[in-house]
Amino acid sequence: MNPKRVATLHARPLKKVSQFIIQKGVLLLISAIFLVISCAKDDDVEPIDNALLIASKKSTKSHSADMVLTWNKAMQDLYTFPRGVGTPPISSAYTWTLVHLAMHDALNSITPRYETYARVAVDKDADPDAAVAQAAYDVILTINKIPFAPAFVPQNLTSIHSLLETSLNAIPDGDAKTKGIALGHAVAQALMAKRASDLPHLFLISPNTPPDGTQPGEFRYIFLPPAPGGKGFAFPDFGKLQPFFMSKDDMYIPGPPYAVNSPEYASDFNEAKTYGAINSQVRTADQTEIGVFWSENSNRSWNFVARQVMESYNPQSQNAWKAARYFAVVHGAIMDAYISTTISKIQYYTWRPESAIHLADSDGNDLTVADPIWKPLLPTPPIPEYPSVLSFSGAAVGQFVFRHFGDRDNYVINQTSGFVPGVVRSFSSISDAVKENSLSSIYSGFHFRQGIEIGEVLGKSYGDYVFENALKEKN
């Protein structure tokens, strides 16, 4: 079944979403400092009794995933219009990953069913729900203390404060609850301390560095009025972050893009020029909606898909440990997609369609024609083009979810967008959603076809990798 538009409230969403993307671009100009907190030492971790582990695994099978799903839904709501506006996808991916790893680690520091990301002393008597809620809350609040934190966390956290109170009030007072809260604090502290080396790499914008390219095909800055000199490079050092699940940061570096004087490049150029223009005469209304719809935060959009697939199964087949691991891998994979593609983008340093079309007279290709006033449907992101992180992250999540639920692809998915209230797009499979997500970058004017196709190939491979290697079940 082809994706279709199910409902639109009032006016077409393009004007609103364009405004949202511009607001996000302003926030890319703010530099940030990461709050470093102390760490629980690895040698403080108490040994695990194997007999106890076997017995306790049985008890976790029936523990409800409700608390994990409640905090997961709270994150989804936090990054949905209007609260999510202003948090760039790459920096908010960092928050989503740490919050979900905190919930996963909290549960596995009570009953170690899966490998943890960070390590704290196991407390088998801690209440799982108290530990999950407190760990998630502490991570959100810690990141919220970063100067200029709106790039990482929406600033209205009233709902999060209330949710912690509600979550803990629902748990009977007693030693288990007290220990659960203490464990949540410890897990969040250990997790954030493990990422303390991220500090030098989290700044959001680098004015005029790296420099403008000079050769055909090299990245050119797009004028960004709030930046110094009107030029700013977004998240230049995210590629230096330690990956969450990749064994090394250059695992998924693709081969080079087409040469700008090749016929393959010209074909992609002309497609992007025709379909990605703000005033395109060939892009349909549905394709315009696709371009805007998927331009939002990837974590929110793919979390929505992942939840729908999970909820299509009998709820009794899930438990807190399974759900926490599932969402931790989903969001860690998205963050690793940003790390990996940042490395590739800087290595190949390719221009975006907007620059390519403005400067086509100098590209040495007789099959391309310049248009110095061409504008994309949505404002061009200030970072090189190749490959597409939107395609990489969507394909990675899609493949992981596909593998997680036994290689089944046929699901009814009614997808919403955090930036386009009232619009729903329907799919009959995960792969349909993955494909439309990728194509949206052509319709928005962000990418050439090779960039999105390579992104999908990389993402699918990485989805297989995290399914087989990330947070593995203990024997």
UniProtKB/TrEMBL annotation:
Pfam families: VCPO_N (PF17897). Gene3D superfamilies: 1.10.606.20. Residues 64-193 form the Vanadium chloroperoxidase N-terminal domain. It comes from the Bacteria. InterPro entries: PAP2/HPO_sf, V-haloperoxidase, VCPO_N. This is Vanadium chloroperoxidase N-terminal domain-containing protein. It comes from Geojedonia litorea.
